[in-house]
Amino acid sequence: MNEPAEGGSERGLELDRIVFFSDGVFAIALTLLVLEIRLPEPMPGSHASGLSIALLEDLWPDFYSFLISFWFVGTLWIAHHRVFRYIRDYDRSLLVFNLFFLMWIVLLPFSATLLSRFEDQQLAVVIYASHVAIAELALAGVWRYASRTPRLMDATRMNSRQRRYNELLVLAMPLVFALSIGVSFISVPAAELSWLLVFLVRPVLLGITHYSGTYERL
Q: Are 99 and 72 in contact (CB under 8 A)?
């Protein structure tokens, strides 16, 4: 197959390659998250101790980091899926925007590991929150580029309210994590707790935009 011209676009099954590749990156990132949950190695010359409540408590930071990161990545996958349901074509710039977004997804297990090992330290919380916020903004870049390039976006598949909802959603998500960075200067646990507001963003925005039930139920 000949290389498409610079700035040109292709239709058909070629677009599916982007989606399948993206899904594969998400799957790898989710798998890497669980690999960080490891039982502590016994000291040299000592016998492995049995399972105990204390051992499970020691593993709680790893489980917490896995659970919250899994759902954040899952939320981003749903948002990515929603974005590409409206995209009918692509060009080289869209590929670059999408790759930039996926870079932050596949790197998230690193920030999740920092959070599990230093969950009580502000720097770890700031790094994690900044990472997720940047990933959200990168996805917002994919949406904004595609939505402002008529040949890429199928505008007939959404009404004005749906467009407004999507525009608000891609900005509201990173705002939650940006605000949590400020909260971390007051209380690190409160900053981590504030991340749960992410799961309230969608229903709140649906109320703001007065959705009538025509939105996609994912």
A: no
Within-domain flag for 7: no
Chain centre to alpha carbon of residue 106? 10
pTM: 0.79
Residue 127, domain extent: 60-208
Distance of alpha carbon 121 from alpha carbon 28, whole angstroms: 28
What is the number of structural domains in the chain?
A: 1
In a domain, 167, yes or no: yes
Residue 200 counted as domain residue: yes
Q: Which of 215, 191, 194, 193 is nearest to 203 (CA)?
A: 215
Dump pLDDT digits (tens) for 168-185. Answer: 777 788 888 999 999 999
Residue 115 placed within a domain: yes
